[in-house]
Amino acid sequence: MAQIPITIITGFLGSGKTTLILNLIPQLPHTYKLALLKNEFGDVAIDSQLASSAAISGVQELRNGCICCNLVGQLGDALETLRRDVTPDRIVIETSGSAFPATLAMEVNRLGRETGHYILDGVVVVIDVENWKGYEDTSYTAKMQQKYTDLIVFNKWELVDERMYEDCLDRVGDLELQIANVKSDKGRVDQSLLLGLDSALAKDGDSVHGGYSKDKQPHDHSTHHQSEVEVLSVNLVSEGNIAKSVNLDSLETFLLSAPKDEVYRIKAVVSASHPLASSSGDVDEPAGPPGSINTYILNWAFGRWTFTHTNTALPAPLNVASSTTGSGSSTKHETILRMTIVLARGEATKWKRRIEKGGMIEQDGEGGFLMVDRVT
Q: What is the pTM of this model?
């Protein structure tokens, strides 16, 4: 059974973590099962708006303590309850405002190794730009906190002047770490940045592209928010009547070369001729004869990646005209890779040229059509 991806959302008290989750829910397919594990101080139950949401399939709460220290031993039981009772496609952990994300991330990784049920997808930190003084601490402790942070979301920046936002940005920069960051749109960040790709999201071909398509703008986005990230759509199509595979050595080189301050997310569905290894070295072995072509979901996030075997079929090729041989028979075209790359602002043109130049995404053997389109 596929591992359940876990997304950790943390940040100081009042930074907007719950708002971020509430704005994520409408972006997900209506059949998507999202579970929430929420850590709160006190006895007050989870926000009624969130608990009553039809898109939240299950909720567990850990109260009167911090999930990264005195409640860390209860994390496994809470996750198991959600896994058993809800069978979610994803679990989001919302921490208390004082949680230490590194400890929590390491505990999720440990539980994933021991049970085989979970995998850490990413850690998101929300910063309240209007009340950002907590980030004045640039000590060793603050740097250790950021070690397990994949994405910083600047929230409430619309409520301050440009100078105050720049001061906040500079202070985070004092941590001297390469961390991707994005402004929220009144507490909203596109799910293509917050979440990796999993089997449930990959069932819808448009979900591979994070809700984007060439014919329409991202849904429910403001013009300003669109400018915060840039998106490339990549399709690799084989030609011939024999099943083909992506060149896996070239693909791995591409994944290793992508700097996490330029490339935020890479999501793809890939055809491969042998089992693929995640960045941790784990291999998801499919059933079937050796050498057969199998389909995998690739989820790359901030320097880490996983390959998960899936039965999801790749969509039909886009914009590739059929060809005919001299005997009159038609030549078969098949999509062997469909990928979305979410980049920092100003990076799309450079990476489009790099990919089109060759050597990063290509068919195993000769041939293949590579199409790279800028979506936003």
A: 0.68
